[in-house]
Design goal:
The complex is a heterodimer of chains A (177) and B (123). Chain A is α+β, with helices and mostly antiparallel strands. Chain A contains 7 helices and 3 strands, in the order ααββαααααβ. Chain B has 123 residues and is mainly beta. Helix content of chain B is 0%, strand content 46%. Chain B is elongated and about 45 Å long. Chain B starts with 26 loop residues before the first strand and ends in a 6-residue tail after the last strand. The chains are: A alpha+beta (177), B mainly beta (123). Chains A and B meet through helix 2, strand 2, helix 3, helix 5 and helix 6 of A and strand 2, strand 3 and strand 6 of B. Strand 2 of chain A pairs antiparallel with strand 3 of chain B, so a sheet runs across the interface.
Amino acid sequence: MKLDPRTTTVNDLPAEVREALAALHPHDRLQWAAENLERVETDLIVVIETDPEAQAFVLVPAPEWMACAMFGGINPPIEAYHALEFDDGSPVLHRTFHGAPEAQDSLTVRNGHLLTLALPCPPMSEREAMEYLVLKDAPREVWDADKRSNSARFAICSRDQVPSERTFRNAWRMTDG
Amino acid sequence: MSTNRYLNAGQPGAGVTVDNMASRVKAYAAIDTTGANTIGSSLNISSVTDIGVGDVTVNLALSFAAANYVPLTSKDYSVSVSSNIARPLRNSVSVLRVQCYENGALQDTPYLGAQFSGTLAGQ
């Protein structure tokens, strides 16, 4: 029987199991989660706008990832992602939704061990997981006050606040309401 | 870490350790882009970003070590259209952009599959 991350967290596991889980490679932890955790279908999504003249983007979390975030003890801390660098010193997470600089094609991540060695995150609420996801998967210009463009913004909202009809998908804009 | 180890005592290569991590599929996702962008099943995928009609980015939970990873994509097939293409565009070590075409135009699809192989960062 799989564990439900809405009611059970890593803190409910015996100490020796918690320690063994934390010692695994993060990819092995994800596989452990796939075999042992129920998916978490959240109602939350993130609407992102980087240009008021262009369509809004919609960030949808993977249910398996949400399960890992809410259960805890699986995902590396967000600081480890932000510290990732290519071998020329440029940050790995520097990108837009439309692509990374072509120069990155020839680069290698030089400090990927940070993801492997960092202690995994503790359990999060759904809202905290979505905030973590913005910091990981949204372009830095959206959330970093130092690099933010005036037109970039995001909102964590529920699925029913986004149209289900997609005929005019490419005309979607964020509203203040 | 789960590994396959081969210790061939007395044989050439004795003591060599082989880790099957290198040969594993590192990530996969099955995505329906027609409605609310639901993710049917996934591994090592943190999210999907809907950036337009038939146009999504697949965001990896764990980054690859370099952009030379191998993405395989597929989409549902319809005999009524002349071309069914799920075009992968490697965005970066942690993001894959996929564009789905039917009859030469971007089109949402009820089934988009993406599978990733390669070396993870820190592996």
